[in-house]
Records
---
Amino acid sequence: MALAIETIGLTKRYGSLVAVNKLNLQVEKNTIHGFLGPNGAGKTTTIKVLVGLLRPDGGTVRVLGREVYGDVPESRLKVGYMPELPRFPKHLKGWELLDLYGRMYGMTEQQRREQIPKLLEMVGLKGREKDFIGKYSKGMQQRLGIAQALLNDPELVILDEPSLGLDPVGMVEVRELVKNIAKEGRTVFLSSHLLFEVEQVCTHITIIHKGVALASDTLQNIYSRISGAATLVVELAKPIDSVADVLRKLPFVSGVEQGGRMLVIELKTHDDVRPQISQEITRAGGVIVSMSFKGRTLEEVFMQLITEFGGQK
């Protein structure tokens, strides 16, 4: 398993406060890994250690196979980083800011001329690159921040709360941007306390609380391990007893309850098995009026972990 990020026993203190407590974290390459936790959980502190802005007080940190300890510029050459609520000089134009960052990365003029227009188009700022940043909306500034994080053609992109403070339209735009970044073969490490956003884009998640990792796995595995069975609720045009009998024989079905035209199907899997269920119901002579998937949300899983953690203290 190739890792983009690995921490072993990572610890960071601020005086008597332990912000990150012996954190073991593994982020596989070519994934969108959500770093999830409430405000004050230690997410931003961890990220600042990863990008060399803070020195750890204990443990080992590796980014793209290179050990990181404090400000080591070489370790950041293939890492793109957008901090929480990026603040850019309002007197600069969008393209000027990217050109300035490109110079700091050591990019040649030719490289900047080629890369900047591509990034502006990718983040939806083509045509607005000559506007002053002070005239940009919050969503536009977030997208500009993502563009600067991609300037150095990074293998790993670290985004700290990229949807924070955005309206629903801005959240959708950023969500699609993150997906497109991953499609280019990059690893995305995305910190957020917005559970729904993480659920929409991430393949893997780590849940952190008070500096401690409570769970870290694929999204589906965490659901399966913690959240219990999912169910399908099916409404038929008319009740047919044989439909329930047929469904009970399916290997991924653990139980079926029937009440008139309604079927409640308990599943052994969190995979989307609605096509197979629909097919079997139709074969048995049933006509489906509606079908809804009832699974526990990431919010419920998150709250269960937080509650269990509190009970162990």
---
Amino acid sequence: MLSIAVIIANRNNARFLPQCLDSVLSQTLRPAEVVVIDDASTDNSREIICDYARNRNITPIFNETPLGVAASRHKAIEQSVSEYLTTLDADDFYQSSQKLAEEARVIMEHPSVGRIAFSDVMRVGVHGEPLFLVSSQKPIREGNLSFFLRHLRGFIPRDYLVSRVDYLAAGGFNPALRFYEDWELKIRLSQRCTWHYSGVIGTAYRDNPRGLSKAPLREHYKAQRKIFAMHCDTRHPIRRGIDRARFFLYQCICMRRLAI
């Protein structure tokens, strides 16, 4: 069976940490590593993490000064050793106890680098109550998702299972990005990997009133446009301008804050 590291990034999410950690520890396929990196929290997150680490197979890392989510995730990944990786935010949790097992099954059907497994996402309220499946609003596709990921079309995989080899070859998380660092990494991964659906609900993505997703909409648009411009796949100036204009129009008309 695959050796999996679950990387959990936390900053001031003490109220949600127990549900997050319990959902990982209750997986039918137990991860080889659970690495929790705390980004200089000012609440009682450290106490909760240390309590779990004393009694369970959890590796804690504590940043003395905030590094940001991208740099924190990458730091934790560098300190893990497992063959495969998946991430989870501390204010989210696994909806299904089969999440890791089913994604591992998808990988093992054709074991090789260049194959990423992902699951459906349940949007939940602040108290964890189910709201809706993301797949009910965004169609799930498989295979080569390079175009769809770059243009934010359809279902955007979240908290996917990827090999360490592919993660490092793609360059890892970009610490310079405050927003959409996960989307930007998925664009780079899609240049070398194909995406495969597990058929189960994976992450419960929480509507956290204090999360980065609640930043002003103009900041979301600015970050998305910057990343799209970084990865626009045509060098012809006119076609590039048309491609960017289409993306901006799609943003303004169709987009809402996404679970990406």
